[in-house]
Amino acid sequence: MKVSNELKVGVLGVLAITLLILGYSLLKGKQFFVKSKVIYAIYEDVSGLSATNPVQINGYKIGKVMKLELLANKTIKATLNIDRDVTVPSNSIAKIISADLLGSKAIELVLGDSPDNVEDGSILTASIEKSLSESVNETVLPVKIKAEALLASMDSVLTLVTFIFNKESRANIEAS
Fold first, then answer.
1. How far apart are CA 4 and CA 53, in angstroms?
2. Distance between CA atoms of 146 and 148, rounded to whole angstroms?
3. What would the mean pLDDT of 135-154 be, rounded to a whole number?
4. Which residue from 21, 29, 40, 66 could staple onto 52, CB 3.0 to 4.6 Å apart?
């Protein structure tokens, strides 16, 4: 039996389109052959966090952020896709952290001590770690306040020195 050229081109075309769709889905972060579970976290602010950012436990990647969506009450629901074989206690905290000095974000799961584990579709408690700039500002604030007080004192001293060494006082000193 002879296969026509049109059939060969058609099969090749369908195969190419299928590979294109699967490749695009893979680049978007979709995993086809990995068993995982979906959990959620609700945040007030997710600055710097985006889909495909990693989900970690003690720096070890166990999953990724699948999507972020704005809820009606102006909070953001993060959908986390984590490996099914990882046990996460139900009182764990999903904390947004800075993954590096360049500002990229990740979600760190701070494991709790509950004997119950999260199930597919559970909602975790959420928190946000301070960014590097916020930490630096918090540390520098007392120094800034002291520097402002020092500048005010120096201004008072300079005004006093200027008053003492005005033209009339200099003439009196020269006469002495």
1. 48
2. 5
3. 86
4. 29
Count the neighbouring beta carbons within 10 Å of the beta carbon of residue 165.
11
pLDDT tens, residue by residue, 76-98 = 999 999 988 888 898 999 999 98
pLDDT of residue 9: 94
pLDDT at 24: 87
Backbone dihedral angles phi then psi of residue 78, each to the nearest 5 degrees: -100, 130
And the tokens for 156?
A: 């008072």
pLDDT at residue 170 is higher than 80? no
Separate counts of helices (H) and strands (E) for the chain: 3, 7
Strand partners, 124: 41
**From CA 75, how far away is CA 67, in angstroms rounded?**
14
Strand pairing of 36-43 and 54-57? unpaired
Q: For the chain, where are the alpha helices, taking DSSP H only?
A: 5-27, 132-164, 167-175
Q: State whether the Cα torsion 65-69-72-73 is positive or negative.
A: positive
